[in-house]
Amino acid sequence: MTTAAVKPASMAQALQRAMRDAMAEDPTVHVMGEDVGTLGGVFRVTDGLAKEFGEDRCTDTPLAEAGILGTAVGMAMYGLRPVVEMQFDAFAYPAFEQLISHVARMRNRTRGGMPMPITVRVPYGGGIGGVEHHSDSSEAYYMATPGLHVVTPSTVDDAYGLLRAAIASDDPVVFLEPKRLYWSKATWSPDAPSAVEPIGRAVVRRPGRSATLITYGPSVPVCMEAAEAAASEGWDLEVVDLRSLVPFDDETVCASVRRTGRAVVVHEATGFGGPGGEIAARVTERCFHHLEAPVLRVAGFDIPYPPPMLERHHLPGVDRVLDAVARLQWEAGS
Amino acid sequence: MTVQELPGAAAYRPTPPPAWKPRTDPAPLLPDPEPYRVLGTDAAAGADPELLLRLYAALVRGRRYNVQATALTKQGRLAVYPSSTGQEACEVAAALALEDRDWLFPSYRDTLAAVVRGLDPVQALTLLRGDWHTGYDPREHRIAPLCTPLATQLPHAVGLAHAARLKGDDVVALAMVGDGGTSEGDFHEALNFAAVWRAPVVFLVQNNGFAISVPLAKQTAAPSLAHKAVGYGMPGRLVDGNDAAAVHEVLGEALARARRGGGPTLIEAVTYRIDAHTNADDATRYRGEVEVEAWRAHDPIRLLERELTERGLLDDDGKRAAADAAETMAADLRERMNADPVLDPMDLFTHVYAEQTSQLREQAAQLRAELAAEGEAR
Fold first, then answer.
1. Closest residue of chain B to A70, computed from CA coordinates
2. What pairs with residue A239 in β-bridges?
3. Across chain B, what does the average pLDDT equal?
4. What is the predicted pLDDT for the residue at A99?
5. How far is C-alpha A18 from the chain's CA centre?
6. For A77, which residue in chain B has the nearest alpha carbon?
7. Global ipTM
8. Who contacts B227 (Cβ-Cβ below 8 Å, separation ≥6)?
9. What pLDDT score does A196 carry?
10. Does residue B143 sit at the A interface (CB-CB below 8 Å)?
11. How far apart are the first and last CA of chain B?
């Protein structure tokens, strides 16, 4: 590998590269969705794939999400490995019936006879100034559906490695792409891409001793920034990037919380009935005797996603994370 | 610059919108004004006697299967049975029109089509018995799992047919749906995708008059369900769904058209659900006996029996032979369904994912411990 090949690459480019490499290696991989062909996707994540592999491998479909995912089911039944793009989080809802009633259950329904190796890519989350229906964090809906894997990267490396793993998986993966990180860059070589990352493992992004911030996707950079700011207050925060919401890595999360004794779950999705409730319950059930304070949640408010001029009040930011850390009963602790 | 100041305004001549061009001529796509029939018409003379006899044997067996499955619900051996009594011509013709390599996409009311295709009735009825969701290997039989959510199997059929065509395989998918299902969004999306992709797929709508209790008039204002095809740019065919010879012929033409790259066809088979929606339904709340009797007179077995008898192709011995074969099938089904299936509760965790998650391993251990405790209590 020459150093010249290593240059800043965006998450969108890494995702494109993951699909391109998967398509080159495996002729059964088919990309399909709205505007994914000629245009290269509204976020340009599928840029160049139709040109390189032809429109039968990277297909502009009619504008109908249930039809896109429903036909992908049939293609998977015949042995193909579809990678489906849902254009935006809230535009994926018409495909829910296919996802929940068929994609998630087909393996179980057929006693393993008909697995569904489908990747459903969904750009999600806010912070890009999108108008209504362009900024939802819909992960809790997917998490509540047995049979699906739910994965979300927060780094350029993981975007490549996790998407490769998702496409290679014989189970359906809802692959949530934090759209405000699409243009985040890292020093990354498309000529020597990062390794395929196994699905289901969380990673400690920043080691610390005072408390654990449990987070994923677009909230990871927020928590990293909060941890840096907290250092000046004397708190040494650990940041755990879940990467995979299903399967959930109890082991890494609980090992961290047992070390630190305190935890805050941070996500954009609404708090009530959101992922944080499940995570806080799991941590409490498993780490109760190690906890110095209740597990707190920093989440989006329980409101429909706000208009862009107000979204900064809704999204969990550094200050809100630090406020939660301050409420972790430090004075009562050992 | 205002509109008035646009250059060349004085010389401007109105023309049609530049993007518009004619797409598909709708005339050849339109269905016949009346359901196509063979039996009792001049067309019957051209029908292959051997095929008619095959259809007859399968119809008699199919009726007996419906009666037996309904009886099994009363004996508590099936959780539920959506009968296709009165609709056997569609079920039988669908199965017999397909080649072995083709795929069938049945709804929950189409177990008979799967059985005529060669599936063991016990396997076909697994979902309705309640011991698992699908009782057969779909790839082995090229029969998709029985689909309960309405019309959602139609895009699957389109996707499979599309994949087969991309691979260069000579495979056609036949997707079955009811009149109620045509109101679902998935019906629309499947037909649209199929037409755009020219997928080798045939949609067979069994218009049996009711979606549970709701009659067709409350379901659609379309001239006929077959007319819906025109909007997608595919041909619509209207056929007497109780005329097995007609359904078989129309299906055969549509399948051949799909096979030679001509794209999809929508077929509306006009039939009638003689039984209630399922054994749990009470049809007297929404329809009268006069209507049912009129349809009993247009019974698929009777129609074909008359044709065969008149042409000297079927005598009393032939009828008895068909009835005896059906009886043998029913006795075997009854006997095997009377045995309790052996179930392993641990199967609940086996096929959720390719590899069990740690959470499911914990839950499986919990159930295993509960089962062990139950065993000790006994």
1. B155
2. A206, A213
3. 95
4. 98
5. 15
6. B160
7. 0.96
8. B30, B31, B236
9. 87
10. no
11. 92
**Are the C-beta atoms of B289 and B283 separated by less than 8 Å?**
no
Note whether B189 contacts A110, CB cutoff 8 Å.
no
In this structure, the strands spanning A211-215 and A185-188 are unpaired
Q: How many CB pairs under 8 A join A and B?
A: 135
The CA distance from B82 to A47, in Å, is 49
Residues with Cβ within 8 Å of A115's Cβ and at least 6 positions away in sequence, in order, are: A76, A106, A107, A170, A171, B354
Active site residues of B: 273, 277, 286
Closest CA to B267 of B288, B278, B252: B252
DSSP secondary structure, A115-152, as one string: ----EEEEEE-S-S---TTSS---HHHHHTSTT-EEE-
Note whether B20 contacts A: Cβ–Cβ < 8 A: no
Residues pairing with A178 in the sheet: A124
The total number of residues shown for chain A amounts to 334
List chain B residues with CB under 8 Å of A78: 159-160, 163-164, 167
Task: Measure the CA–CA gap between A154 and A220, rounded to whole angstroms.
Answer: 6
CA geometry: angle B41, B83, B54, nearest 5 deg: 45
Where do the domains of chain A lie, and which CATH numbers do they carry? 7-188 (3.40.50.970), 203-326 (3.40.50.920)
**Secondary element (H or E) of residue B127:** helix B126-129
* Separation of alpha carbons A38 and A49, rounded Å: 9
Cα–Cα distance for residue pair A21/A164, rounded to 1 Å = 8
- The Cα of A155 is separated from the nearest Cα of chain B by a number of Å equal to 24
Cβ–Cβ gap A78/B359 under 8 Å: no
Q: How far apart are CA B141 and CA B119, in angstroms?
A: 7
Residues B267 and B368: their CA atoms lie apart, in Å, by 50
The full DSSP string for B232-290 is HTS-EEEEETT-HHHHHHHHHHHHHHHHTT---EEEEEE----S-SSTT--GGGT--HH
Alpha-carbon distance B55 to nearest alpha carbon in chain A (angstroms) = 30
Query: Band of the pLDDT at B267, cuts 50, 70, 90?
Result: very high
Which range, of A318-322, B42-46, B53-57, averages the lowest pLDDT? B42-46
Q: Which ranges constitute the DSSP H helices of A234-317?
A: 250-260, 275-287, 311-314
Question: How many whole angstroms separate alpha carbon A155 and alpha carbon A119?
Answer: 19
Distances (CA, A) of A87 to A45, A150, A307, B52, B180: 11, 17, 19, 51, 30
CA–CA separation, A106 and B144 (whole Å): 10
CA-to-CA separations, B58 to A313, B169, B365, in angstroms, rounded:
68, 29, 48
Q: State how far residue B214 is from chain A, nearest Cα, in angstroms.
A: 23
Give the residue, A187 or B215, on which the prediction is more confident: B215
d(CA B136, CA B64): 22
Interchain pair A101, B152: CB under 8 A: yes
A10-67: pLDDT as tens digits: 999 999 999 999 999 999 999 999 999 999 999 999 999 999 999 999 999 999 999 9
Q: How is residue B147 annotated by DSSP?
A: B
Least confident of A5-14, B85-94, B293-302: A5-14
Is the distance from CB of A135 to CB of A310 less than 8 angstroms?
Answer: no
Instruction: Give the count of alpha carbons within 13 A of B164, CB side only.
Output: 26
Contact A81, A26 (CB under 8 A): yes
Dihedral sign for Cα atoms in the order B282, B287, B292, B295: negative
Which residues in chain B have Cβ-Cβ distances shorter than 8 Å to A61? Answer: 193
Residue with tokens 């969904």: A122
Number of alpha carbons in the 13 Å side-chain half-sphere of residue A210: 18
User: Which one, of B26, B24, B31, lies nearest residue B225 by Cα?
Assistant: B31
